């Protein structure tokens, strides 16, 4: 299943003005506190992986910024996504806030400010901090972020709001579309800048994606013109029913008039999930059993007539054009001939005023 989506805990931040110089130096020297920015300290970091370290630092930056915020500023955009626990393609380097007053240059390197009027229903509280709601955060990110990054946020946000469950997809269909309509209405209420991109991202969002990398795989495909795939596509084999991360089934008419079906399945091959303590397993024995079961599953799926399964790694997703070329080679020729890339999903990020 996908990564857990839960609000992230925020560390306690101390201003250097609250501590004597000698006490602050002693706490840092003892490894009890760490300087996160000039004039602000937080408990010493404990994370061990690169992503966890980046996330821990970003949360510490948010905590320190919160001690100095004025003018009713609310944490928003990527910072709000992080606080809500939504998926992110990359961890924000500096905190982002939205405020009514015009941003000035003060603190621009350590705080990114956006100017907007937030309705009361657009603001909530997470870890005692004022934060934009998940719905508002999805829309803000869809306007500002690269479409790939925004789609990662949107998928996880919608997944959280509807409690997406692959086995209840039919029963949840109406709730998903009502949520999509609310998000599109929220886009329409805001400024025109970034509106077309935001609409494209929200229309492409799918709450049944189960990880940010699955979302990225889907973005590679749909942004370049392939029709939306089915997430968690059911595949029946002689050894049981399995679910692929995403895939398509195409009806193909052969030159002799016969009809056949081609199924193309995509899977994100995350190495971390097979490591003890890193994802799905907790021991070397369990890791070995998981790898064997996964290989057996793949063999059974490949036995299904007309089925192609492609696996992609993180390094491949770092080169979307090459990943798409590999995918396209498995797609029926008539489908390839009708590709129409979606410009709004390929556009770069909107420049943010600081």
Description:
- With 354 residues, the chain is of the alpha+beta class.
- The chain contains 13 helices and twelve strands.
- The chain has two domains: 14-210, no CATH class; 226-338, no CATH class.
- Strand 2 and strand 3 form a beta hairpin.
- The longest helix is centred in the middle third of the chain and has 21 residues, at 169-189.
- The chain is elongated, with a radius of gyration of 23 Å.
- The model is unreliable at 272-281 (pLDDT under 50).
Give the SSE map.
Layout: E1 14-15, H1 21-29, E2 33-37, E3 40-43, H2 50-66, E4 74-75, H3 77-84, E5 96-99, E6 112-115, E7 123-126, E8 129-132, H4 134-144, H5 147-162, H6 169-189, H7 195-204, H8 212-223, E9 230-237, E10 240-253, E11 259-268, H9 284-303, E12 307-312, H10 314-317, H11 320-328, H12 333-337, H13 343-346
Parallel strand pairs: 5-6, 11-12
Antiparallel strand pairs: 1-3, 2-3, 4-5, 7-8, 9-10, 10-11
Helix pairs in contact: 3-4, 4-5, 4-6, 4-7, 5-7, 5-8, 6-7
């Amino acid at each position: 299943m996908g990564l857990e989506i839960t609000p992230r805990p925020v560390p306690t931040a101390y201003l250097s003005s609250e501590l004597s110089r000698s006490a602050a130096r002693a706490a840092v020297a003892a490894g009890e506190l760490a300087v996160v920015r000039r004039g602000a300290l937080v408990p010493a970091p404990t994370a061990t992986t690169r992503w966890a370290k980046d996330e821990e630092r970003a949360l510490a930056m948010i905590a320190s910024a919160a001690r100095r915020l004025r003018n009713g500023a609310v944490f928003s955009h990527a910072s709000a996504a992080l606080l809500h626990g939504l998926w992110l393609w990359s961890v924000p380097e500096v905190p982002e806030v939205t405020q009514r007053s015009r941003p000035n240059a003060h603190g621009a390197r350590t705080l990114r400010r956006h100017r907007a009027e937030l309705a009361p229903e657009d603001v909530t509280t997470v870890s005692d901090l004022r934060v934009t709601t998940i719905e508002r955060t999805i829309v803000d990110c869809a306007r500002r972020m690269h479409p790939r990054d925004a789609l990662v946020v949107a998928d996880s946000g919608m997944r959280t709001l509807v409690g997406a469950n692959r086995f209840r997809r039919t029963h949840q269909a109406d709730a998903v579309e009502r949520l999509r309509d609310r998000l599109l209405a929220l886009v329409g209420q805001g400024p025109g800048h970034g509106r077309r991109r935001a609409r494209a991202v929200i229309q492409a969002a799918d709450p049944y994606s189960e990880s940010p990398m699955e979302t990225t795989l889907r973005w590679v495909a749909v942004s370049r013109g392939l029709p939306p795939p089915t997430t968690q596509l059911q595949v029946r084999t002689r050894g049981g029913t399995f679910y692929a991360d995403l895939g398509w089934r195409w009806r193909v008419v052969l030159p002799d008039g016969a009809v056949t079906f081609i199924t193309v399945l995509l899977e994100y091959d995350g190495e971390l999930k097979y490591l003890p303590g890193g994802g799905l397993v907790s021991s070397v024995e369990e890791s070995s059993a998981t790898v064997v079961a996964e290989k057996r599953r793949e063999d059974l799926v490949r036995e299904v007539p007309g089925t192609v399964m492609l696996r992609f790694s993180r390094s491949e997703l770092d080169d979307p054009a090459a990943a798409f070329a590999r995918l396209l080679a498995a797609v029926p020729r008539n489908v390839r001939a009708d590709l129409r890339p979606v410009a709004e999903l390929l556009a770069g990020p909107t420049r943010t005023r600081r």
